[in-house]
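Q: What would this chain look like folded?
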Amino acid sequence: MNQPVLSIDIAKGKSVAVAFTSYGMQVKKPFSFLHSPDHISSLLSILVQLEEATMQQPTVVMEATGNYSKPIASFFFSHGYPVFMLNPLTTHELKKRSTRKVKTDPIDAIRIANAFYLGEGTPLIPVNEKVTELRFLCRQHAQWKALLGEVQLQFRSILDLAFPGYDKAFQNIFNPSSIQLLTKFPSPSALLNADKEDVLTILMLNRRGRTWNKEKYSQLIEIARNSLPDLYGSKAHVFAMQNSMKLFKTYQEGIASLEKQMESLAQESSAYHLLRSIPGVGPITAAMIHAEIGDIKRFPSVKQLTAFAGLDSSVYESGTFKANQNRISKRGSAYLRTALYQASVSGISKQVHGPRNPILWRYYQQKRLEGKPAKVAIVAASSKLLRMIYGILSSGTPFQDN
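A: My prediction, written as structure tokens:
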């Protein structure tokens, strides 16, 4: 291939580049540069020299390394140069095939160029600015939800020491009345010594009748009398529990704020409204799916979209052996895969008048009748949902149960 290339091995704050006029024709030895405006601008002169020497526009090639590669890639793309992104797994495979196990940044930069010359890599196609913003918000939302889950687990473990049995009184110990009750009365002794009316006032936050809350009060008092907390370090337990509740409230408020921004931004897209037409796809899930997929025209076929979601089947063959129970690859967007799974669970759930999404439910039942475990059947339903999404977004037609 007689294509001039500037190959870059990306690292944090500092990277290594090497220039080729064609395959195997290295014209500039590997050199390092800092991720600063002055250093990266100096690379433009090298691209100009490559173009003058070959009479062809050079291509910039690098690995897709997330936050480290995005500013570099956008810089060159904004200056009119084609940018190709390589999956790090590709260069890792080349490294494993090498006779000598050598790992240095200059050699990695050369490997990246060789992988490109062998036909690897995909051209960088910038995503719409609003979709990029929505994607960032959605991923922040997913990360904050994960952090909230960790805080809840930690809180439960501390509660078992400070107030054993308390969780039996509430279906959800993180509801507002429960959290406020624990904030004011964080131990069995504190609750037993509390004024009954003070406790009832907090319980009434659940908007149930006074009779119901009096029964709940009696249940809590009975639990407190029979609770056996760990007396050693009890002050520390209460302190840790109060800190966990503060974190819980902070994350809840942050997640609510993110969801408000996500919905506001997603509302501007027609794709979002098409996704919302699918039963089981809620506002947050629709925003996540739209943010990850972006423009559906990026995917020429549903197979490519399925691979992007990591829902394509992995293939294992060796000699005459061919596996007949292959798992999904999980190589694509984990955020998209999670959103599809959640939407599928919601879609196959039964309501008063039947399943929320009849098509998904019938497909799920079919897989269950084939002997598939529940989770495997849900993953299969996720793949089915993705095919539905591809058809809906490609045609611009809302969901129809036919």
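The mean pLDDT is 89.
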